[in-house]
Amino acid sequence: MYLRAIHAELEIPLLRKFIRSNPLGILVTALESPNFPTLQCTHIPWILDIKDEESTSELGIIRGHLARANPHSKALIEASKLLSPSNGPLEKEVTIIFNGPAHSYVTPKFYVETKPETGKVVPTWNYSAAQIYGKAKIFWDTDNEETSSWLGTQIDDLTKHTESTIMNHTGGQNLPPWEVSDAPDRFIELLKKAIIGIEIVVDRLEGKYKMSQESSDGDRKGVIKGFESQGTDNGTLMAKTVEERAAMKEQKAKKGTT
Questions:
Q1: Which of 36, 197, 228, 238 has its CA 20 to 30 A from that of 28?
Q2: pTM value?
Q3: For the chain, which residues make up each domain, given as ranges?
Q4: pLDDT tens string 53-80
């Protein structure tokens, strides 16, 4: 990930929160194979495990699952079998890309300071993203009890997380969450045989918010006003995010001078 200092998000707890709020990540692998494409990518919802939530440096372990019929799964299994007869690790690093909910083209018309003064403005695209890198273990062997146990935990944990965090089904005044136990046991066991699991020990975690921090105060205010004037949900969220990141930039600058 290209990280200009002004756009980089270096706070690990904030990046962990970003991933948990936007759990649909794109798994990217480069596995040399005579049978499958070298480069493959798949959208997968993930769950991030952290031992110490108070830690400012722990990167954790991230878990997901894929359909066994997916050619990407078949390539992962093939690569795993080269190193181990059952549920082996991968030799090469893999990557997961997470995107934030708000992103947009930014028209030069928003730059109310620089455009009328010099005209030296060009369009850009504002967005936020995080990327994870690490070594993966693949849970594919249906004859291994470890596979069934791991997949059962994975499905249950991911369901609990997404039902509460994404759907806000927390019980009480809200709707009760759907639980894996609501489905027949036999049905769940059959579905588990149709998926494989992937667990990645995170070695590197990077993130960025490209939200007009590099612009002058006048231009940034123009960007905020421009997005607000769109009258759309995305425009409102973009304006809010640009404003929030500007405030964080100012706070960091004040800390640097004290």
A1: 238
A2: 0.93
A3: 8-103+122-211
A4: 999 999 999 999 999 999 999 999 999 9
